[in-house]
Amino acid sequence: MTLTTxxxxxxxxxxxxxxxxxxxxPLLLVSMDVSVLYFAxxxxxADLRPGAxxxxxxxxxxxxxxxxxxxxxxxxxxxVGRRKLLLGGAALFGLASVAAAYADSPGALIAARALLxxxxxxxxxxxxxxxxxxxxxxxxxxxxxxxxxTVMASGISLGPVxxxxxxxxxxxxxxxxxxxxxxxxLLILGPPLLPESKGTAAPGRFDWAGxxxxxxxxxxxxxxxxxxxxxxxxxxxxxxxTTGLLIALLxxxxxxxxxxxxxxxxxxxxxxxxxxVLVNLLAMVATVGFAVFLTxxxxxxxxxxxxxxxxxxxxxxxxxxxxxxxxAALAKRVDRAAVMTGGFLLSAAGFTSLTLIDADTPxxxxxxxxxxxxxxxxxxxxxxxxxxxxxxxxxxxGAAAAVLESGTELGGALxxxxxxxxxxxxxxxxxxxxxxAAARETLGGALASPGxxxxxxxxxxxxxxxxxxxxxAVVMLLAAALSATLLRGGKPAAGAxx
Length: 498
Hints:
This protein has 19 helices and no strands. Helix content is about 75%, strand content about 0%.
């Protein structure tokens, strides 16, 4: 099947592609801020001396606020204008970056990270929604969404590398100040390049009660899942997850009764949109859940420095740069669902190869397996994003993008919990009963142990990585099955714009 441009469809020109480039730089930095503190936190701890709880909030506050406000900001952009929200978010993100860079206490840094999350929640759904406005032609929009997904994935991978390089030569505040040039550029070039767009229907009053419910649902849900992933089952995180789910039910019940809801539940029931959100969530389960194991394997098993491990972890991105555009081009000729299914199956094959890693496996073989799974994953995610965006009506593009991105945030938290639990169980079972308690719990707890215990811990962690890779492969097979059944023939007409 070949995508064609129907009569009357306006193809994007140089101005639209330039506008896309302007959008990509802030998107890269917003996604980098999720992981940019990984190497900066020791310097921050030495300077500001936060307690253990404050340090966790410094790391996590940005992601929690970002996830909690995505749906609200996406719906708000549909009402007040996506460009207006984008530029407001850029201004706030820039100011918050300065505040974070020069924070003189843990509380000030936590507050600045919260403001960064608010700014990021304004920016992320607006960039994807504006792509829906800029690119009416389906083939061009597919190319633009491919770039969007690649930049988003690259930003998360680049964050540790950039922070490691900056902290090595400058002070820790520099990891925030690099945001400023991109935000200033967006504020200067955005108004003349980006068209204003918002819902065409006359909306009723904004659902502020629904906005509070979405925030109250996502914050405890994601926080609780992450706490369960890091510390195992405990009553308080389990209560947080339960509370989040109950509030989410109240939110959905409210949305079903409103004439002009924040989230269009009817759109979620459409296979092209709802199915894409679901498989995208599963993709993030595997991506985020396994990334922790690969990074720790490079550092604690192979003995690489943090910066060296971060640089090697970028190697799979080279395959992604080739695979994602190839998949997008192939989807113009055959059913998109078939290409997505193939991408998930390729990813499952890559994860399966990593279940065979042992002490004698060379680094190139590990990186080859990672490249295969990353290439398949990002290719499928790109098509899922494009399918969801194409299925959403233009007047709800912001809210549709926000729900899609909220699913990715939840998928990442679930991945850490599910694959983390599998890895922890395998590690504990593989460790000798005579090893010290700390060494039996985590590889980090074994690093100061005598040689035989450390060797056993490294072997046990390799087994844990095998188990997590097997779990990720199963998730990818499930995503492939859902793609083949839910999304087959469910895309909009070729080249059409709704």
